[in-house]
């Protein structure tokens, strides 16, 4: 099997990626599925449950986000969840079949102090449950990444969101270079990287290709690549964006799979607007992870029972923790 595997490349160009993104859809899905089978022969899908530990009141101005203080949305700042509350949720997620537990903080960056110590306790606690554990909490330093690694953190999520060129139209309070710097700290600490982006924010196909190019020229590639469709939030600058064509999401999943054959490609935000059939197409195109649970951070997600039923119907099995890397 190993002999037939394609070479993993880190030198993809924009033109090559644009060509892939624009291939006839059936060709594209066939190509992505061929690669997917070589690297993930068992039809495994990872179930990751997401919990917002600190909701709302974020100082950043990300144009898509319900939690930014710069936008008047229906989301108000909530008290930070306690270690006990979080571990109870993680334990429940495990019972319901999740193998990865992801925790979010609406922060610009991690600061030293009580909240960080509690984050470390949460990470240790989730690992003790035998789950993979992921944190997303904004920028961090080398030293903080090191402490998270020591606590047993599996992955840190920090998205590029879009191309370097389109980025400034979405976020002004931190730069693309800041994001890459954070990813560097995560990598140096030996934590796996979860990094992807969003489509449907008014970006061009060229922007999508450029975002994928930045991801696919990281060496090593991110272990996990979330592909989000914009959930348009009232009160944000992106509130009137038209919904994403589901086939565009299929194209993104397929292209991510072709460029980064070993990564876990997660079909992330936006699944409530997708038909079961569109989701199956994304799985065929190489998506092999979903968020599992009734809520993402502030918005809805498909029902657990329906998700389980869907996976059963298509003959997918649930990925065991720690097998993805
Ligand atoms: N504050 C941290 C940060 O920005 O890195 C962590 C939480 S933040 C909400 C995590 C990611 O969720 C963002 O980078 C973005 O890709 C995604 N996201 C946020 N709002 C979204 C929306 N309305 N639709 C789709 N994806 C969204
Ligand atoms: C990611 O790429 N998507 C997740 C997770 N990483 C943290 C977040 C999606 C958020 C969707 C909007 C909301 O629920 O507020
Ligand atoms: Fe804050 Fe993250 Fe939302 Fe940006 S995406 S406003 S950093 S919570």
Structure description:
This protein has 325 residues and is of the alpha/beta class. Helix content is 38%, strand content 14%. It has eleven helices and ten strands. The chain has helices at 14-21, 25-39, 83-95, 114-128, 142-151, 164-167, 176-188, 205-216, 246-259, 276-284, 304-314; strands at 44-54, 100-105, 132-136, 155-157, 192-194, 197-199, 224-229, 264-267, 289-291, 317-318. Strands 1, 2, 3, 4, 5, 6, 7, 8, 9 and 10 form a ten-stranded parallel β-sheet that branches. The chain is globular, with a radius of gyration of 18 Å. The protein binds S-adenosylmethionine (SAM), 6-(5-methyl-2-OXO-imidazolidin-4-yl)-hexanoic acid and iron/sulfur cluster. S-adenosylmethionine (SAM) binds at residues 64-65, 104, 106-107, 136-138, 158-159, 161, 198, 228, 230-231, 233, 269, 297. 6-(5-methyl-2-OXO-imidazolidin-4-yl)-hexanoic acid binds at residues 50, 66, 104, 136, 157, 159, 196, 226, 228, 231, 268-269, 296-299.
Biggest β-sheet: count, sense, barrel? 10 strands, parallel
CATH class: Alpha Beta
Q: Give the bound compounds.
A: S-adenosylmethionine, 6-(5-methyl-2-OXO-imidazolidin-4-yl)-hexanoic acid, iron/sulfur cluster
Question: Termini, distance in Å?
Answer: 18 Å
- Please state the second-level CATH architecture: Alpha-Beta Barrel
- Overall 3D shape: globular
- The total count of strands amounts to 10
Put simply, the count of helices is 11
Report the helical percentage. Answer: 25-40%
């Amino acid at each position: 099997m190993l002999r037939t595997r394609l070479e993993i490349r880190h030198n993809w160009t924009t033109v090559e990626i644009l060509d892939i993104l624009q291939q006839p859809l059936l060709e594209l899905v066939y190509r992505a599925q061929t690669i997917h089978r070589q690297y993930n022969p068992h039809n495994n899908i990872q179930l990751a449950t997401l919990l917002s530990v600190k909701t709302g009141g974020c100082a950043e101005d990300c144009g898509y986000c319900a939690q930014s203080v710069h936008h008047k949305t229906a989301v108000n700042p909530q008290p930070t969840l306690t270690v006990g509350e979080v571990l109870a949720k993680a334990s429940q997620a495990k019972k319901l079949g999740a193998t990865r537990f992801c925790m979010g903080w609406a922060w610009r960056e991690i600061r030293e102090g009580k909240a960080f110590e509690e984050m470390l306790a949460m990470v240790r606690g989730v690992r003790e449950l035998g789950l993979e554990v992921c944190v997303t909490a904004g920028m961090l330093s080398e030293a903080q990444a090191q402490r998270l690694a020591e606590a047993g953190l599996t992955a840190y999520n920090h998205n590029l969101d879009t191309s370097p060129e389109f980025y400034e139209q979405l976020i002004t309070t931190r730069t693309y270079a800041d994001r890459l710097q954070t990813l560097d700290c995560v990598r140096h600490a030996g934590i796996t990287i979860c990094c992807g982006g969003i489509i449907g924010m008014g970006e061009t196909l060229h922007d999508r290709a450029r975002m994928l190019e930045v991801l696919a020229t990281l060496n090593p590639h991110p272990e996990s690549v979330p592909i989000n469709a914009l959930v348009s939030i009232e009160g944000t600058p992106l509130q009137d964006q038209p919904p994403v064509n589901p086939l565009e999401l299929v194209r993104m999943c397929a292209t991510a799979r072709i460029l980064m054959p070993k990564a876990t490609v997660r079909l992330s935000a936006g699944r409530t607007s997708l038909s079961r059939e569109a989701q199956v197409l994304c799985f065929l195109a190489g998506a092999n992870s979903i968020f599992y649970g009734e809520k993402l951070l502030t918005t809805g997600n498909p029902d657990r029972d329906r998700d389980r039923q869907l996976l059963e119907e298509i003959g997918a099995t649930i990925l065991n923790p720690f097998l993805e890397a």
